[in-house]
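Continuing the series of single-chain predictions for the mutant panel. This is the parent chain; the variants come on the following pages.
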Amino acid sequence: MSPFEIGEAIRAARKSLNLTQQYIATKAGMSVATISLIENGMASEIGLRKLTAVMDLVGLEIIASQRRMGWTLDDANEDLRRDALKLK
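Parent structure:
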């Protein structure tokens, strides 16, 4: 899973629980800006403890699995979507 996909999952889970970024930030001991960066897949230096704290608050968990090998159409689409978001 890419940082962008993780952020999307966190945002979707947070919204489904009707929680604000402010609430998550306060409970996790982070800034709203950091929560926003995580949700946008742009938090380049987020530690595992911080990430799991945010994920716990929205009912998500990290599961390790074997990485797919090779470039796929999904990978290409993900790169295009990330590039499009950077242009906004």
